Structure formats: C-alpha cells, structure tokens
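Bench notes, bay 3.
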Amino acid sequence: MPKIKTHKPTSKRFRISKGGKGKLMRTHQGKSHFRRKKSHTVRSDYDEMFVVDSAGLKRRIKRLAPYLNQKS
C-alpha cells in the first residue's frame, strides 16, 4: 500500500505533546502580527500551546497528517 502524502501546512501548525500523553496541540491564532499594541501578558499567552479537544478536528488532522505522531 502506498504512503499517504502529508498536508504540509497542517504538519507545521500541530504537534503531539511530549511526556507520553500524546495529546494533539495547536498554537494560538493571531500570533504573527498586530502584537505591538497588545500588553506583555497577552503577548506571552501567544507562546503557549493549547490542547485540541474537538473530536471532529482531531479526525480531520489525522487524515491530513497521518504520520504526525511518528518520530522522525
């Protein structure tokens, strides 16, 4: 059976958490610009990763990036 191509933008936006839990993590949206006028605490909130809770979104990401949880 041939390998499935990975959707590259999906593989760059999502990560599998470290430490054995294997949770799907995403970055905060709106991180790249319009940050100068925001407070320091808001800007530091952009640096943390969030857990993806939606089952439908997890399923969609698994289809787009099937090899995301495998170590390279």
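Next record in the batch:
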Amino acid sequence: MKLIFERSVDGRGTDYIPEPDVEMTAPDFKPRERKLNLPQLSEVQVDRHYTELAGETRGVNGGFYPLGSCTMKYNPAMAEALAALPGFAGVHPLQEDESVQGCLEVMRLTEKCLAEITGMDAVTLQPAAGAHGEFTGLMLIKAWHVSRGETGRTKILVPDSAHGTNPASAAMAGFDVVNIPSDEKGCVDLEALRAAAGADTAGLMLTNPNTVGLFDANIADITRIVHEAGGLCYYDGANLNAVMGIVRPGDMGFDVVHVNLHKTFATPHGGGGPGSGPVGCKKFLAPFLPGWRVDEKDGALVRGEAKDRVGDVRSFGGNFLVVVKALAYILSIGREGVPATAANAVLNANYLMHLLKGAYPMAFDAVCMHEFVMTLEGLKEETGVSALDIAKALIDHGIHPPTMYFPLIVHEALMAEPTETETKETLEEAARAFLKVLEDAKREPEKAHLAPLTTRIRRPDEVKAARKPVIRHDLGA
C-alpha cells in the first residue's frame, strides 16, 4: 500500500481547527524557516488510509496467534474502556492524595491481588516492563545482601533455559552470571546447581514453568539448595499464566518475583508498549522496594515511601493505566477464573501438542504446561527445510508464526503457545495447517524456502531490517 505522503495532493485537506478567538502571543517564538511538510488529503482519504493500514495489522482478533513464551493474551475491550475513564486517564501524578483516592485504591487493590496470586507479602507497581522488573528484583537482592555486610555475594545463577533478559538484567545489576545447564529432561541439573552454589552466590533466577514449557518437579530442592548457600531466589513471572491460582512462587520457595501484566493479565503491549512489570517480595525485602507505597492514614489513602528503598526505577507509580486494565481483568474473572484460565492454557497446549507429536518431533516428550517446543533439526538435515521455512509457510494458512529458534538449547526450535482462549475447533484447524505445511515441505523443499507466497511482502531481509532500519520517508529537499 502507498504511504500517506505518497497519497498527498497539494491544496487538499479539511479544516478541523477553528481560527483562534484570542490574540496570539509568543514573544520568544522563532518561526520555521520553511513550511511544515505534512500530507495533504481529504477526510475520506485519511479514513481509508488508516482503515487499510489497520487491515494489514496482525493480532489475536484476526486469527490464531501461537507465539510462544510471550504471547499476547485476551485483551477485553471492557478494560480499555475503564482505563479511558476521565477519573483514571485525566489525573496528574502530582495531584494531592485526597483528589486521587480512587486511583490509590486501584493501586492498593492491585498490589493485594498480585501479592495473593504470587504468594508474596508486598508489591511495587513501579517497574515498567518484565525485564525492568527483573532488574528491580535483583536490586532488592543486592540491597539485602549489602545491608547484612555480605558484599562478597556477587554471582547470580541462571539456568540455560532462561529468558535472554535474565542474564542481561543480572549483568546490568552488577552481578556475575553463572550458567546452570539443563538435564536430559529439560529441567535444572541439580548436581550442577549444587556445585555452583556457594558463599559467593547472591541468588538464582528461574522461570517455572521454564522456557521449554515444563514444570520443574525439583523446584523445592532447587530453592532449598540456593537458600542453604545463603542466596535468594528470584522468580521470572513471564510464564505465570500456566500456574496462577494453582501454585504460587512464594510457596515454591521464591523470595522475589516480577509479574508481566502485559502477558498474564490481559493488558496489550504491542507496538512497543506500554508494559508493566510489578515486583513482589517477601516481608524481609519489603523495606527496599522502590517508589512510594499506598498506605492508610486517618481513614484516607496516602502515598508513603519504603524505609530503605533502592530508589526509584521509574517516575511516580509506574504505568498506571496498564494497572487499571489488569485489575479490571482480574476482578472480571474472579478467584475462580484465575486458576481456570491457567488450566485452560495448559489443556490447550497439551491438546495441540498431542495433535502434532506424531509428525513434529517434540524437544521433550513429556506433559507440557502452557507451551511446547518442537525441533526440526532432523527435517533440516534431511531436506534443508528449516524452522524458519515452516514458520513462514504458516502465514499462508492465516496463522501467525510460532516462536523460532528459542529456547537456544533446542536446535531448529519452534515454540507454540495456543493460550487459554482458543477453541477446540481452532486448535484442530491449526493442527491441520501445521501438518499440511510439513507435508508440502517434505514434498517440495525448494518451494518451502520461498514462503510466504500470498503476502504483500514476501520474505524481507530481516538482518538488514534490524541493523539498517528505514524508519522515515524521504521527503526530499
């Protein structure tokens, strides 16, 4: 489709802004040296352009979207409408506490819900995203060790199946990263963990279920080993949607956790944001939490700071409107809906895996949680068809590609997460598409390298697009 500038015709347009009825005063105003170059279109042209653009957008409301590990979940319009209410969208963070009692109640109630779901004692809503929450949690761990004079605890243990942000966050927080290998079942190698844990261990970062979609049966042993070495345990909440309301990180032995509101609790984060990554912790870490806390004084809600906090990690109270959406979702599904959502996510993943496992080799032959990982290493060796080729071919069947080449411990990996909202019929239709793509690839390997065949843009140079992006239109002189 054409860019909006390419549709522009000089002199065309519609006037929406009335002439000012007061004298314009700008004593320090310096006028532009040349005319502002904006596209000139009729009202109908503008409407059609953005409608066509919206039609090119891929989302969960347009078809099956099995992107693994970080899938966009159900985003109810009801929550969007609530977040747009003037009492939420129109407030200013510097208003007096008495004028934002409703907003403070939203924050306090959200903190309470998240603390109960994760098994923590205190929560901060300030972190703006998941990796930001990781960094915040690690700062809590560091602050606690420093407060005890244990400055020699400089290492964070990170399993090789971790999200890539885990070691990056640990390094940003000033820790040395120690890689812990997985065992043959795809879970943490206990002997390697015991060998690595010691007097220099500050903590462990772990996702459970992990990034191959498996719940680690040794989780209680894992957290005990780290605690006995004097370290703390950090829970990456990216995969919490598989277990929420069924088992809590706090009960597994974790001391601090971040939660992705923009994954688990139905607040969209497409297009780069906004996200929200609240951090919860046990009582002994609560004094170090960043930002201000919602307290009660003389019958009213007030903002108060933690005693020995690590400092702000973001301005004010975080991305407040994302919090509003998350709370709306939690309250709408209720206490029974939280575990039901997790159970449906696990059921859907196992059903789709069952439909595919006879044709697609599974990286680990076990009951999965919310996602599962296939390996196309054998197909690549036999035919030259890669996981990338299969993923691209699925686009021709109206399916958004699953995650490719992650986790790194699985060669030619495809990770699929069907989420909790898909129907049995949708999963069966998706399975037929997966099987047809695989059948076609084996029959015509060369054609598989050309997929997708039906899209406006075929297969772009993704490396060049990432390293040399063209993000603006050349308007010329």
